[in-house]
Design a protein that fits this description.
The protein is an alpha/beta fold. It has 6 helices and 8 strands, in the order βββαβαβαβαββαα. Strand 2 (12-14) and strand 3 form a beta hairpin. The structure holds flavin mononucleotide.
Length: 173
């Protein structure tokens, strides 16, 4: 059976890293794909989030409060021969961005193992994995996800490499 890395990551201005063209979570996603020999699929929003930090956190807060399901571009990939999904996202207001839920609502994930990884600036994984597990009880969401500081993910490739390697080892991958 196969695995895939699916992630959402925001570019533009962000906390502690300035203006970025490759998102923090994207960097981790690419490293996981490299170490596991899998492909990546990026969840991209149809209506772009603001590139500036303050407006972006306001939009994200409203989406969270409304339990919004913002649209993503394209169709969810065919996951029929996939058994393990490495699922990446930034910690947004102590949850996964609502667009990650939009994706999971549409993708056929029942029975699949979901291995969450996130980047953050202090909150870690928080209860994001627990929230995903509660929202998608028919998927097997691993609660011991990988959490990396966004600025580390952005600027310290060697740290990302070893954190990913350790996590995969812990998971027996
Ligand atoms: C809308 C928004 C909300 C955020 N909320 C949190 C938070 O609650 N806790 C935290 O530690 N970091 C928070 N952050 C920081 C991001 O999690 C962090 O910068 C992350 O690495 C961004 O990843 P990305 O470049 O892949 O989008 C927030 C950032 C944004 C833009």
């Amino acid at each position: 059976m196969k695995s895939i890395v699916i992630y959402f990551s925001h570019t533009g201005e962000n906390y502690s890293v300035g203006n970025i063209t490759v998102g923090n979570t994207a960097k981790v996603a690419k490293e996981i794909a490299a170490q596991t020999g899998t492909t990546t699929w990026e969840i991209k929003e149809k209506n772009p989030y603001p590139t500036q930090y303050t407006p972006c956190i306001e939009v994200a807060k409203k989406e969270l409060q409304a339990k919004a399901r913002p649209e993503f571009i394209g169709e969810a990939p065919d996951l029929s021969d996939i058994d393990t999904i490495y699922l990446g996202y930034p910690n947004w207001w102590a949850d996964a961005p609502m667009i990650v839920y939009s994706f999971l609502d549409k993708a056929k994930i029942d029975g699949k193992t979901i291995l969450p990884f996130c980047t953050h600036e202090g909150s870690g994984l928080g209860s994001t994995a627990k929230k995903l597990a509660a929202a998608y009880p028919k998927a097997k969401v691993e609660l011991k996800g990988l959490a990396l500081y966004g600025h580390v993910a952005q600027k310290e490739p060697d740290a990302v490499k070893s954190a990913v390697a350790n996590w995969l080892k812990q998971l027996g991958k």
